TrEMBL record:
Source organism (scientific name): Dreissena polymorpha
Protein name: SAM domain-containing protein
Lineage: Eukaryota, Metazoa, Spiralia, Lophotrochozoa, Mollusca
InterPro entries, per database record: GAREM, SAM, SAM/pointed_sf
Residue ranges the record marks as coiled coil: none
SMART domains: SAM
Residue intervals of the SAM domain: 32-77
Length: 96
């Protein structure tokens, strides 16, 4: 079990889980750096994609502009893994 970095701890706290605030969550994610996106990937147990996202310079603004198919076809994720990211962005869901 990996320890949460200060940045990834903040990512667990930053998003609202109320569905009415989905656009607010996306606005917050848009401001995240590539390193913070890496922290989120680690938090979501998607460590194997941290370097891929960095190599492709995916920051929060880029991530929020992508579709699930982009994550699958361009970044090599499985559909379920892409869904995990989208659930985090829209609902703040973190797998337990």
């Amino acid at each position: 079990m990996s320890a949460l970095t200060p940045s990834s701890y903040l990512m667990t706290q930053i998003l609202n889980t109320d569905q009415e605030t989905q656009s607010t969550n996306m606005d917050k994610i848009k401001t995240l750096t590539m390193n913070e996106i890496g922290d989120i990937l680690r938090l979501l147990k998607l460590d194997e994609y941290v370097e891929t996202f960095k190599d492709n310079q995916v920051d929060g603004a880029i991530l929020t502009s992508l579709e699930r198919d982009d994550l699958v076809n361009e970044l090599g994720m499985k559909k379920l893994q892409a869904t995990r990211i989208f659930m985090y962005m829209s609902e703040g869901h973190i797998p337990k």
